[in-house]
Amino acid sequence: MNSDILRFPSEYEAIQAFIDRGWTDGMPIIPPTKPRVDLFIDYCGRKPDENLGVEPVKGRTITVQKVAINSVMAGCLPEYFPIVLASIEAVLEPEFNLHAITASTMGAGVLSVVNGPIAKEVSINGSTSVFGPGHRSNATIGRAIRLCLINTTGSKSGEIDKATLGHAGKYTWCITENMESSPWSSLGEDRGIANNSSSVTLFAGLSPTQVSNHSSTDPKTILNSFRDALFAAGPSQGEIVITLCPEHAKHLNDAGWGKIQVKDYLYEIAVRKDDEWGVGSIPPGPKPQGKSDTHSAESPDSFTIVVAGGNAGAFSNVIPLWGGGSNSRSVTKPIN
Amino acid sequence: MQTTSEIQVLDPTVEPDVQSSFLADRPESLDGSIIGLLANGKKNSEELLQYVCDTLSETFDIERSIAGNKGNASRPCPPNLLEELSESCDVIITASGD
Fold first, then answer.
1. What is the pLDDT of residues A172-229, one digit of tens each?
2. Residue B26: inside a domain
3. Most CB within 10 Å of its CB: which of A96, A266, B55, B91?
């Protein structure tokens, strides 16, 4: 099914009309002319009317062409398009629970972590200011995913999107890991993707909490700094992302700790009596009762470790996921 | 034909798949009815529905109510629960109770 052609007196007026119709994130876009869109479709070698999936509640069918249109609008280059396509295929998987995460008052963004050779090929930043501005691929891939959600699922602010607060990651949120500085395997490898292949993992992420520890090289002392941030996410999280900066990861690795030890220790220390958890502050999931202990995570495997950020500085973060990390599960897709 | 300054762009949006549907018949009275109360799993949803049922009982001679809870507000109601309630009840009331 071909998209309707819209005519405007000038490029500027097309941009204004897209903003006025609520088809952008509030910022100007690149007008998606057919030649521009066709460049993207030709690059990936897929048919424009190929059905990537159906949005589960409104029954909207999302095609390759619609994703290409929104990728052009976001300012992507054609070589980013396979990443956006794989990301959209990922969020359409039932376990991601797309409608809920885009409609809920909890206000999730969609975090994409790209691994493998394509990250370097398209210059995705995983180092200094990894979550900040200044890198076209980071900025526009994440934006393309958001524009797809706005335009192909109808997740417009105040309409389907009922977020109480939301957060800045809802504009764009795409990173890679700092594999030059990481002592460990990549997230893609952890999810079963060969290290010479590319993948993207999507998370329904809530506001991150930065964790600082400049004073210690001892693994336990560093990880103890994460306790309060983990408590803020609520109890029994099914999944939760830990972004370790290279400096923290190095200290942990130098002491002989790998991801398994880190996860085990975080699980062990982020625990408290049930009546210490804030009553009424609990997201969906098991409800604390009585005086027994409840951990912040369901199990050590609930933690996903990502190594990213600049080599200078001892700042990591905790990214809780929507719905207690159990009603939306992260999804990894290979990038073809 | 495109003029020099005119621009033609593609529509980025997708329309919903609109399917015709209908509202269930509204009974003239709830006297003698079995009322299903289908909670959505949110905190207070069961209490809200029970309050609605109690309020209706002040006006109607309701035979009894059957409570169900789909357990997860972000997922559809399990088909077996929906089937069970629809077979057992004359009317089902559902609501969010955040």
1. 999 999 999 999 999 999 999 998 999 999 999 999 999 999 999 999 999 999 999 9
2. no
3. A266
> How far, in Å, CA of A120 to CA of A143, rounded?
19
B93 touches chain A (CB under 8 A): no
B15 in A contact zone (CB under 8 Å)? yes
Q: Are A7 and B8 within 8 A, CB to CB?
A: yes
What is the amino acid identity at position A13? Answer: E
Residue B23 lies in a domain: no
Q: Do A47 and A53 touch, CB atoms closer than 8 A?
A: no
**Burial class of residue B26 (count of CB atoms within 10 Å of its CB; 0-12, 13-18, 19+):** exposed
pLDDT exceeds 80 at position A129: yes
Name the residue range of residue B44's domain. Answer: 34-95
Q: Which residues of A touch B11 (CB under 8 A)?
A: 3-6, 69
Which amino acid is it at B29?
Answer: S
Tell me: pLDDT of A34 over 80: yes
Residue-range domain boundaries for chain A? 1-180+190-205, 207-320
Nearest to B14 among A9, A32, A62 (CB): A62
Question: Is residue B82 assigned to a domain?
Answer: yes
Q: Please, which pLDDT band fits residue B2 given cuts at 50, 70 and 90? A: low
The total number of structural domains in chain B stands at 1
Contact B8 A327 (CB under 8 A): no
Instruction: Tell me if chain A has a CB within 8 Å of the CB of B44.
Output: no
Q: Do B8 and A33 touch (CB under 8 A)?
A: yes
Q: How far apart are CA A209 and CA A129, in angstroms?
A: 15
For position B16, what pLDDT does the model report?
86
- Is the CB of residue A200 less than 8 Å from the CB of residue A336? no
Inside any domain, residue B59 = yes
Distance between CA atoms of residues A177 and B78, nearest Å? 39
